[in-house]
Each structure stands twice: as C-alpha cells, then as structure tokens.
Design brief:
By secondary structure, the protein is mostly helical. The protein has 5 helices and 2 strands. A two-stranded antiparallel sheet has the order 1-2. It starts with a strand and ends with a helix.
C-alpha cells in the first residue's frame, strides 16, 4: 500500500492510503463506486467549477486537437478572424452604432474612423479573404441618421398630443 497526498479542488489535503490496484475478489464496478463514494464523503467534489450546471454540449463531430484553445478563446471573448473579416464585422458594428448615435458629430467620427481603417486595408495586399468594402459616404449616412431621428421625434410628438 502506498500513502500519497490527495489534493482535491476544494483545497484540503488528505493523507490516505491508496492502493495501486483494486483488491482481489472485488468487482471493478464496486471498487470504483466505493472510491467515488469515499471521495464524496470527504467533500472532494464540493465547490467544483460548474457545479449544479449541465456539462457543456460537445458540438464538434470530429476530434480537434485545439478544442481546448478554441473553448478558452470563446469563453474569454476572443476571436481569430482574418483582418479583412474582422474589419467587415467592425464595419457592421460601427454602422449599427451610427444609427443610434446621440449626435451628428458622433456619427461623423464613427464613420471617419471606420473609413480610415478601410482605406488602410485597401492599400495593402489582403492577408485573408477579399475585404469587399469601400469607404462609406459620410453625408449619406448622416442624412439617413437625420431622417430616422426626425421620424422618431414625429412619432413621439404624435403620441404625446
């Protein structure tokens, strides 16, 4: 028999005898069940991360050696998109932000910054898929913003009276 320290995730260390093999005459299932039951009684399964929640679904059908990296990045909110696709996503988000911007000055600043990034990307060879974007017409976006804003004001005044 070997005495080995056991460090459960709960943080308490136990020095308990642990055999290398199951005792003769005991079924494997009984032996494993007893080990699990003993560990539960010692509280080694208490306060584990994710306790009380279902295990995350496995959606990949083939084995991927980088599964843990991908899951960690998703959990941390990171993405690994080629720069052109990342800029397309940024353009989509920026245009959505421009729609609800509080002032024309903010709309202009958002689109000017975006256009600068698009022009910069257009001036160098694409590191991934083609960008498929060109600078946006700031005046057109501001005009649409003004129209939407005027429409919302009209709706509010119509319901108030």
């Amino acid at each position: 028999m070997i005495i080995r320290p056991i460090a459960p995730l709960g943080g308490v260390r136990h020095n308990e005898p642990m055999t290398e093999r199951k005792p003769p005459g005991v079924s494997f299932e009984s032996y494993v069940d007893k080990q699990i039951r003993d560990a539960q009684e010692r509280g080694e399964f208490a306060n584990l991360p994710g306790a009380g929640r279902p295990a995350p679904a496995v959606t990949e059908t083939t084995y991927d050696e980088l599964w843990w990296i991908k899951r960690k990045m998703a959990r941390e909110g990171f993405s690994v998109l080629p720069p052109t696709l990342a800029l397309r996503k940024e353009a989509e988000d920026t245009l959505a932000a421009a729609v609800v911007a509080p002032s024309e000055r903010v709309v202009r600043r958002l689109v000017e910054d975006l256009n600068g990034k698009i022009r910069g990307m257009m001036c160098r060879p694409p590191p991934g898929p083609p960008l498929g974007l060109k600078p946006y017409d700031i005046e057109e976006i501001v005009r649409e913003w003004r129209e939407r804003r005027a429409g919302r004001r009209g709706e509010h005044h119509g319901t108030a009276g």
